[in-house]
Design a protein that fits this description.
The chain is built from two helices and six strands, in the order E-H-E-E-H-E-E-E. The strands form two sheets. A four-stranded mixed sheet has the order 2-1-3-4, covered by helices on one side. The protein has a two-stranded antiparallel ribbon with strand order 5-6. Helix 1 runs antiparallel to helix 2. The chain is globular, with a radius of gyration of 14 Å.
Length: 114
């Protein structure tokens, strides 16, 4: 039950959003037991984000929430892949991408909790 939320200070076109959706859907499988089948995504563009006191460059803040434990080496690979994806699709330099990982102990879905 992964969730990837993205905030960026630039505009994401509908075509770019679909590309991000597909590429992040593939990338989530880097984490053991995770797949696009259960992946939820959200995208917020044109946010007021600043990095190092500046907002003149494209910036992305990405949150990856996962039900259960996250293996460090797998998350490291996923970080590299997410940075690569945002570089390719939105031209955001990896040095301007922050990624927060969160392990969720309880997740609700379909009227119940896991």
């Amino acid at each position: 039950m992964p969730m990837i939320s993205t905030k960026t200070n630039i505009t994401i076109s509908p075509e770019q959003e679909l590309t991000l959706k597909s590429k992040l859907g593939e990338a989530i499988s880097i984490l053991s037991g995770k797949s696009e089948r259960w992946l939820m995504l959200s995208f917020e563009d044109k946010c007021h984000l600043y990095f190092q006191g500046d907002n003149s460059n494209p910036i992305a803040y990405v949150e990856v929430k996962v039900f259960g434990r996250i293996d460090y080496s797998q998350s490291n690979k996923l970080t590299a892949k997410i940075c690569e994806i945002f570089g390719e699709v939105l031209n955001i330099d990896a040095s301007n991408v922050y990624i927060k990982y969160e392990e969720v102990e309880m997740w609700g879905w379909n009227g119940g909790n896991f």
